[in-house]
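Why do we care about 3D structure at all? Because function follows from shape, and shape follows, mostly, from sequence. That is the central idea of this module. The next example makes it concrete: a single protein chain, its amino acid sequence, and then its structure expressed as tokens.
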Amino acid sequence: MEYAATLNNLGVAYRTLADAENKVHNCKRAIDSYKKALLIYTFKDFPIQYASTQNNIGSAYGTLAEEENKVENCKKAIKAYQEALKVRTIHEMPVQFAATQNNLGVAYRTLSEEEDKARNCLMAIKSYEGSLVVYSLEKFPIQYATTQNNIAGAYSTLAEVEERKKNCDLAIQCYRESQKVFSIDRYAEIYEMIDDSINYLSNFREKEKA
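And the structure:
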């Protein structure tokens, strides 16, 4: 158990280092460490640790996808997050469930940039909305607003390929919802960025589809 815990910690260290230097190399070292931990942290014997490590693997693959093999690494991230959700259920681990659902949404949204845009955007939206069951405006305002932004981004991408007006309107609705938290008096810079996105979508909505 101590060996597995240290391997997981080693993975976290490599993943953190990847943000500063040698992203590809350090992400791969992180993934290797996490996978070695899973030899001990099995689903049957250590479900909580198994889920946490799978979530970490998903995060590392998501970062790796920024640099190489985007489709392949996004799909590996999605698989890892889905494994984590076998344990991180909304009833047993609601906060962890919401975090992993959000991560899953990010992976689907990134995948939509490369293939099957409509389907993967819809999967991203479904995942994000799953996290909102936990991330309520009252209890988790920052997470709520961030997730609403994520949903808006997915609807914006979806509007590029189908039902432009409808999806632009849904995106704008989500952006305005996020401004309930990211208000101009408390988060002026974020508020203005969201306003720019709303203005862009308002114009895009009215354009003739090419």
